[in-house]
Specification:
Blueprint (H helix, E strand, L loop, with lengths): L3 E2 L12 E6 L3 H10 L5 E7 L12 E4 L4 H11 L4 E4 L6 H14 L3 E4 L12 E4 L2 H7 L6 E5 L15 E6 L12 E5 L6 H10 L4 E5 L8 H9 L3 E4 L8 E3 L2 H10 L4 H4 L2
Parallel strand pairs: 2-3, 2-5, 3-4, 5-6, 6-13, 7-12, 8-9, 8-11, 9-10, 11-12
Antiparallel strand pairs: 1-4
Helix pairs in contact: 1-7, 2-3, 5-6
Length: 270
């Protein structure tokens, strides 16, 4: 993955300005960027993995692409004089979070992790919780079903192991893998989607079962509500164990942590 860096080179910052690195890719990361933009106490950069070729425009500096593991991230922190880091990656992006924890320990730069609460099954939900995407593919069973796949494009190939089903997958961009399931319809759409649209889609495509990650949050929840209303089962892939720093639950809490618990190097005596 080529790295694109729109961040400025290290400069002599005013003693009271704190350099913040946000590890992003979520709506919470964008909301935090919005809170930090124009706040003269901070100079923030948003880092994106580069999974989409046309990410949403951001109000702060962005950089795109991997750092090169925990070592690369620690190097980046030192070179760019990062003073506080917020991990606002997706609940399933556990590698990036492990690297953030390791780099924070190595450099002494404080880390807060924005953790989105998972969805909880409600009355009327018919969830089958499975530990992995591979387990989700086998939980579909041997009889042909019409499956709505909402797992992102990186793991679509896993369903090639269950080629007997008809799949409808919704993605922002086309998948790059060659080994996809044979009976696959791709819907290239970017959310949010409302409840009515989700009900219509599930009905029009005659979906029997949905496969989902437990992303939490409100942006993609209407598909879960639609499944409940239509009495459809959901195969729910469990979250990975994500290493974390100081846990915060919202962009506002992350902002409060930055103000009260992190401090510019000048004040830390670094
Ligand atoms: P990951 O497995 O945790 O990360 C893999 C590598 O991608 C990291 O080691 C890092 O490379 C790079 N990376 C990830 N996030 C980054 C960021 N914000 N800035 C710079 N580099 C970053 O995460 P993933 O591969 O992106 O996704 C894992 C799961 O999360 C998938 O199931 C995916 O569907 C889901 N997900 C991810 C995103 C997203 O925006 N990333 C959004 C929605 C869903 P280096 O080691 O080289 O630094």
């Amino acid at each position: 993955m080529p790295t694109m860096d729109s961040q400025r080179a290290p400069v002599q910052l005013a003693a009271s300005v704190m350099r913040v690195l946000i590890l992003g890719g979520t709506s919470e990361a964008s909301a935090l960027a919005q809170l930090l933009a124009g706040d003269r106490r901070f100079e923030a950069t948003l880092s994106l993995a580069g999974r989409t070729t046309s990410p949403r425009t951001q109000p702060i500096a962005t950089r795109v692409g991997g750092f090169g593991g925990a070592d690369g991230l620690a190097r980046h922190i030192e070179e760019q004089v990062v003073e506080a880091m917020i991990d606002a990656t997706h609940p399933y992006a556990d590698q990036m979070s492990a690297n953030a924890v390791a780099a924070s320990r190595r450099t002494g730069v404080p880390l807060a992790s924005l953790v989105r609460a998972p969805w909880q099954a409600e009355q009327g939900d018919d969830w089958n919780d499975v530990p992995s995407t591979e387990a989700a593919a086998s939980a579909l069973g041997t009889t042909k079903r019409r499956v709505f796949l909402t797992v992102g494009r990186q793991e679509l190939h896993v369903f090639a192991a269950a080629p007997q089903h008809r799949y409808v997958a919704r993605l922002i961009e086309a998948p790059q893998q060659a080994d996809l399931p044979p009976d696959l319809v791709l819907l290239r759409q970017r959310g949010p989607f409302d409840l009515e649209a989700e009900r219509r889609l599930l009905g029009d495509e005659k979906i029997d079962v949905m496969v989902s990650k437990n992303s939490g949050g409100s942006a993609t929840y209407p598909k879960i509500e639609a499944a409940r209303q239509l009495g459809l089962p959901v195969i729910m892939i469990a979250r990975p164990d994500k290493p974390a720093g100081h846990v915060v639950a919202s962009p506002t809490e992350a902002m409060a942590w930055l103000v009260h618990h992190a401090s510019p190097r000048s004040r830390r005596g670094v």
